[in-house]
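Please go through the protein record below and see whether the fold suits the sequence. Record follows.
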Amino acid sequence: MELDIYQIDAFTDKVFGGNPACVIPLKEWLPENTLLKIAKENSVSETAFFIDNGKSVKLRWFTPELEMDLCGHATLATAHCMKSLLNYPKDTIHFETLSGTLTVSVNNGLYSLDLPSRPPLTATLPMFIKSSLNFQPLEVFKSRDYLLLFESEEQIKNIKINRQHFDKVSLGTGGVIVTAKGEKCDFVSRFFTPQASILEDPVTGSSHCSLVPFWSSRLQKKELKAFQLSQRGGVLSCENKNDRILLTGSAKTYLVGKIRV
């Protein structure tokens, strides 16, 4: 079986930036084990598989280890693939996913994702996460992911993870967000996943489902500019819409090809 594959860099306006996602259109779902093997072979943080049946677009996301319940950057990448490469006729795409219907609006090359809000609550940090950090957070919160608040952007840039301790934690589809107030933007963050083949995710849309309501409340602002401080880096324009958030960014096509399964 031969399948089309597209690799898209999301939340960036240049290749080699943002977060790479592979996007694969399907006519029907392949066995879950096959989808997982494809994702592992692709060796990027997320591979998105979608089926456009004309009435709706079914979308699923896989890391090299498991199926995810929500992935922002791979959703943006899929929208970019459909609009810029596959001539999807509408400027609004409704994706049916494990997290319900996700809407992406396209305007002048920018993609706006309507995602669920996941405000984090005060929590206690597991010992193995605490012992894996070279800096300790000021405060700890949790939704799907742990959200650790730090004193400064400089600390976020210089955080190091001791995987010997970190990988003793199992968080399912969750991870660990580290964040601080930004120097030239509203807030900065990084995202780490224990037991994953890719420790640090370059730009994480789903983590902003917690970051946006958190910082919106702290800064008393509905519209925020965010920067994810990974090596590749990513820029996100954010809006807090109470029970939903809006993330806007751009994308670039890196690869168009075929895979044989």
